Amino acid sequence: MPEPKPAPEDPKVALQKIVNTKAYMTSLFKGGVIVVVHDSDHAKLAERLGARGLIVGNAMRKGIDYEHVVSAAGPAVVRDILSSVLLPTIGRVRVGHIAEAQMMEACGCDGVDEHEGMAATGAKTYKKFNTKIPFIAGVSTLDAALKAIFEGASMIRTSCGADEDKPDIKLTANTIKTIYAGINRYVKMTKPELDAEMVAKGHSQTMIALIKQCVTLKKLPVPLFADGGIMLPMDAAMMMSLGADGVIASVQVFQAADPARRIRSIIMAVAHHDNAGKLAGICEDNGGLGVAINYKV
Fold it and tell me: Residue 117's closest CA among 79, 161, 52, 77?
């Protein structure tokens, strides 16, 4: 007799398994540095120096000027990077661009970053819950972070504005402070006050549960990474001190006089952000200045 077919899995249970897997994947980045890379040479150097993960940006983003469209890196570049390293690798795509997100997943990327600095293809972001790989969303407020998590984002990063090549540490720091200030405001509320505000804002039960989770944890329930052109070890250390779970190092670190020393100094600064003595030595040997940049503080 043929063996009976197993009963189909409950769709809700299957979805929760996917969510749990994506949450585990993004938790592996915590306490480390994700480096933005443009090619396999960048990727191999970042891996050798101890990066926790990679984000594949588009090396031609400054040269493309077809109706001001800035697209994701091509499949050949993505596959070349994936074949050269073992690190978790995230593909950067335009906000709401379904085809680019699906391409990154098909190429074998371990995650997708919907980036606000690239030309958006719609007001709405890509539906994330049913994807098998985690999505990263850039935000500048707590409400935006909660909305992104509600939509299925497995990781949050600070928004780096229209151009990641123009670092704005002030914006990055203020975003982290704003997110924690919003959470602390909810933490200080009494239960009746919190319930009244949830009703007044018309939040769904799912959103209310998410906010209450933030209150319990006193932070976001997913990793929060600092982004925004981070290129210096002391800035990386400050972001960790403000409450970030890790940092995203700009691709411009490869333009330092000694890229290897610069990347290593950022990674070491994140690891020892709470030790001023070690930070002093780390920041002294940071790989030189390299090219001139418009660095806002």
Answer: 161
State if pTM tops 0.85.
Answer: yes
Alpha helices, H only, 122-275: 142-150, 169-188, 191-201, 205-217, 233-242, 259-271
Distances (CA, A) of 60 to 66, 77, 178, 239, 293: 12, 11, 33, 29, 19
What is the Cα–Cα distance from 249 to 264, expressed in whole angstroms?
11
**CA dist 14 to 95, 128, 286, Å?**
27, 15, 46
pLDDT number for residue 238: 96
Q: Where are the alpha helices (DSSP H) in the chain?
A: 11-27, 40-49, 75-84, 98-107, 142-150, 169-188, 191-201, 205-217, 233-242, 259-271, 276-284
Distance of CA 254 to the CA centre of its chain: 19
**Residue 57 CA, distance from chain mean position:** 13
33 HSE (CA, 13 A, CB side):
35
* Contact of 136 with 25, CB cutoff 8 Å: no
Three-class secondary structure of residue 113 per DSSP: strand
The answer on pLDDT for 75 being more than 60 is: yes
pLDDT of residue 85: 97
Distance CA 256, CA 262 (A): 7
Q: What is the pLDDT of residue 1?
A: 53
As given in the structure block, the two tokens for residue 205 are 């039960």
Give the whole-angstrom CA distance, residue 220 versus residue 127. Answer: 20
pLDDT, mean of residues 157-177: 81
Of 117, 13, 25, 108, residue with least CA distance to 68: 117
Per-residue pLDDT reduced to its tens digit, 15-65: 677 778 888 889 999 999 999 999 999 999 999 999 999 999 886 544 444
